[in-house]
Design brief:
This protein has eleven helices and 14 strands. By secondary structure, the chain is α+β, with helices and mostly antiparallel strands. It is elongated.
Length: about 400
């Protein structure tokens, strides 16, 4: 491959490659002649002939070179390039608009979201092309890239920004508490074997959040409270664990949220209701033997006027609450989920709904980069929440609104 010409910058190459999206894209191979002679020479490894003199073999070599570079992209980006360039059989249409709208319908999001992700993906493709990835010896016609292990992403400054968990910042956790009449006797301070944490309801999630935050930002100051103990308002970050029935702090934020949990008596499910989606109602999924199979993780972020960032971890049952925490505090998968949310909403407020499965005694959470959320809503400032993604149709526990 030729040395990179000075004008082969990421922005320039991305712009050139995006010209290939017009009409039928690479479904019409001569389309590759649209790109500049300098980029064609770089892809061919030899000086490029004028457009009208390019042979059929040279045209197909250009197509294969670009397609090979696409194959090297991460899974979360490759689909957007394949659709735009008309390389995806599931979304094969004669215009770019039709292809992007087809993908938007498939992913349950807006075409605007597809276009934004596409811009990011084409910059990544430009880097692959400039680096000469398509000249690797295994890149021959008919070959696909080798199977590689999933990229491992560890918590970084991006995770700290997501959680507002910077060294020295104050992070207060308010965990749901068991009603007094339901508590064990040793939850009382007057008992000789008093255990303070015996009154906490979502104890698994509390432990998971505290240990997870210590890994994301060891220098942050983390304290935990029951709602009846918490009377502070000066934290940098407030994390509320457990839904409204047993967490009075969560109930304080309900008027600002575009959803609610339908209250029922103890021992019955409290389904999630989304008024903006025709009062869509979703609840836990049970087996015929009444074993819990799935719950809903509901993760919300609100930014208060004084600068405090509030995270609300809810669910219909305790499984969903733990799942909300694991989405963003569970090793490499959570780091990928943080990246996904950062790309989708930046630092705006959001409400994320995702399914959580129980397999034996283990909690299995969704990788948002591959499955996407069930529902994602966002807002800037104090504007009303808008639906950004709606994949609720895939959830077995979704019911029509009343």
């Amino acid at each position: 491959m030729l040395d990179n010409p000075p004008n082969l910058t990421v922005d320039f190459v991305a712009k050139e490659l995006k010209t290939l999206r017009r009409g039928s894209g690479l479904g019409n191979p001569p389309t590759v002649s649209r790109i500049s002679s300098g980029l064609r020479s770089h892809l061919l490894g030899t000086p490029s002939p004028p457009e009208q003199e390019a042979s059929a073999n040279q045209i197909m070599l250009l197509v294969r070179s670009i397609s090979s570079a696409v194959e090297l992209l991460d899974d979360s980006l490759r689909l957007f390039v394949e659709v735009d360039l008309n390389l995806s059989p599931e979304h094969r249409y004669s215009t770019l608009t039709e292809r992007q709208e087809s993908l938007a319908a498939h992913l349950g999001c807006t075409a605007k979201t597809i276009r934004r992700k596409s811009e990011i993906a084409f910059r990544a493709l430009a880097v692959q092309v400039i680096a000469g990835s398509s000249s690797m010896p295994w890149k021959t016609a008919g070959n696909r890239r080798p199977i590689e292990p999933r990229r491992q992403v560890e918590p970084t400054g991006e995770a700290q920004r997501f959680w507002n968990a910077h060294p020295g910042s104050r992070m207060d956790i308010v965990c749901s508490e068991i009603p007094e009449e339901e508590r064990p006797y040793f939850a009382s301070p007057s008992d000789r074997n008093y255990l303070r944490y015996a009154k906490f309801a979502d104890l698994d999630t509390l432990i998971h959040v505290k240990t997870g935050l210590s890994r994301v930002s060891p220098g942050a100051i983390v304290r935990d409270f029951a709602p009846s103990e918490y009377h502070d308002a000066n934290a940098d970050t407030l994390i509320v664990i457990g839904g409204p029935p047993w967490n009075s702090k969560y109930r304080e934020f309900l008027p600002q949220l575009p959803f609610y949990f339908e209250p029922n008596s103890l021992g019955e499910d409290d389904p999630l209701v989304l008024p903006q989606l025709d009062r869509l109602t979703m609840g836990p999924v049970w087996s015929p033997a009444k074993d819990l199979l799935e719950d809903l993780a509901v993760m919300s972020r609100l930014t208060l006027a004084q600068g405090t960032v509030v995270y609300l971890l809810g669910g219909c049952l305790t499984l969903g609450v733990l799942g909300a925490a694991k989405l963003f505090l569970h090793g490499p998968q959570s780091a990928r989920n943080v990246e996904y949310m950062t790309e989708e909403v930046g630092q705006d407020d959001f409400v994320l709904v995702s399914e959580v499965r129980r397999i034996g005694g283990l909690t299995d959470t969704v990788d948002l980069t591959t499955a996407g959320p069930l529902v994602l809503m966002t807002r800037a400032g104090n504007a009303p929440f808008e639906v950004l993604v709606d994949n609720s149709g895939r959830y077995e526990g979704a019911l029509p609104g009343s």
